[in-house]
């Protein structure tokens, strides 16, 4: 009996050691990747270097677009048309470098592509341009750990200093106006566009090796984010294309661990959970709750040499994403104001209070899960239906108590 007990304890101890070694190896891998990424981005930022990207003539070529959107030939043809128009307008665009490319379009009732546009981010021959970046005392600096802020700011700097828009000629003013609003921290124009026909988008990093952490640098060939967003729903699919099966497996494990780490950060550091208080439920950090739920919905799989992360979400998650874009644009506007006019953050806010469009601290900019899409902002079909349901529940008469059962004299006698 004693031998059996010792043998069982030995086996259990070995299993615990093996499990601990496996968990420790994965934690060490995530730590090594994260620290390496921070050091790499910090080096690039402090040395003043920027991402070279890929030649614009290659990224915007017909063959590259066909490799990205081969499943949608109509979209490829429309994108070719707007690129040819832009290149004919300014031949110097061929000399630029593209580090990221954002493709947007809508579909009409018959499913045809309408309003295609390409936002090419990188470096182009324009001496007047300046690199994008967050403000050192803006919102992102207050909310994020200093090392995370440095990395986010490095990414904003390294992506490039120029944004070139390729679109149909009659839509140029509309796209440039929306881009200007986004870089000023005004999210309403994008929210209005999202609330119409679903906005389809694709974000492509043609050469992510320079931006990726050292442990992922040789494992990634291309990173593509595809999806669509409407007023009440959205879906996103991220594809990491790797050279072979071995690197795909390694990238898959790292992505799973990074998603778990991100969930812990939102849940624990930013209190991303609904709290039970003496007065009831409290959802004070609704955006962190939304991101925790979004990570829980995310499915990460490996398909041959491709790692895929996909998720579907609703209006509250849309608001969290739009609010994040708005805050990033606000910080970029502060940084540009400081560089161009020497305005400090509080001076920037004070000067913006008389802005006819409302400014950030006006009643048009609200905080909560119902803005910018919902009851506090732009009404959507889902928010209108939810409001009608709440009104119906308010006006419904309260349930009546059950009437006592009638009994006959014979029943009472018995």
Structural summary, described in words:
The chain is an alpha+beta fold. 50% of the residues lie in helices and 18% in strands. It contains 15 helices and 11 strands. It has helices spanning 2-46, 56-59, 62-68, 73-89, 139-143, 146-159, 172-183, 188-194, 214-217, 245-269, 286-297, 315-341, 345-351, 381-395, 409-413; strands at 54-55, 97-107, 113-123, 162-167, 199-205, 222-229, 233-241, 275-277, 280-282, 299-303, 306-314. The strands form 2 sheets. Strands 1, 2, 3, 4, 5, 6, 7, 10 and 11 form a 9-stranded antiparallel sheet that branches. Helix 1 (2-46) crosses helix 6 (146-159) and helix 1 (2-46) packs across helix 10. It is globular. The chain starts with a helix and ends with a helix. Residues 41-50 and 127-131 have low confidence and may be disordered.
**DSSP helix fraction:** 40-55%
Given the structure, what is the number of helices?
A: 15
Residue runs with pLDDT of under 50 for 5 or more positions: 41-50, 127-131
Structural class: alpha+beta
Please describe the biggest sheet, giving its number of strands, its sense, and whether it closes into a barrel.
9 strands, antiparallel
CA radius of gyration is 27 Å
Mean pLDDT: 77
Net shape: globular
N-to-C SSE string, H for helix and E for strand: HEHHHEEHHEHHEHEEHEEHEEHHHH
The total strand number stands at 11
**Ends: how far apart?**
69 Å
